[in-house]
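Appendix B. Raw example, untouched.
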Amino acid sequence: MNLDDIDKQILQILMQDANTSYVEIAKQVHVSAGTVHVRMKNLKRSGVVEGAELKVNYNLLGFKIVAFLSVYLERSSMYTEVLLKLQKIPAVVNVHYTTGPCSMFAKIVCKDSEDLHDILHHQIQEIKGIQRTESFISLSESLQRPLQILDEEM
């Protein structure tokens, strides 16, 4: 789908704050709220917009540890099989298929170091096809932002 500047502006506003109303977006972009509604419908239908997410502070809910995990597979052909197993572990919130020495990179959110240990040793490392893992505990998230999709001159 070819996006014009209005589509990009609408997306950029919603990427900054998904709670922005179509009326407010329309004012900022200088179009009608109906135009914003139709364009969002088209962006969803085309697959550019895949849904909406609620950002939750997991720390305030008792999930104190965020860890990243390099997953080394016995064979790269086992990726799909291992992915299906990782998807069944609720603490695994994100998985990427990667280049380089490891095959997969996963994000894990858990309550504490004991919980992380249990997830790693009794769930993840028990998955057939995983040769080994390497974990990295996040001390803090210093930056999280949406991608800037508008051209600089806008």
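End of appendix B.
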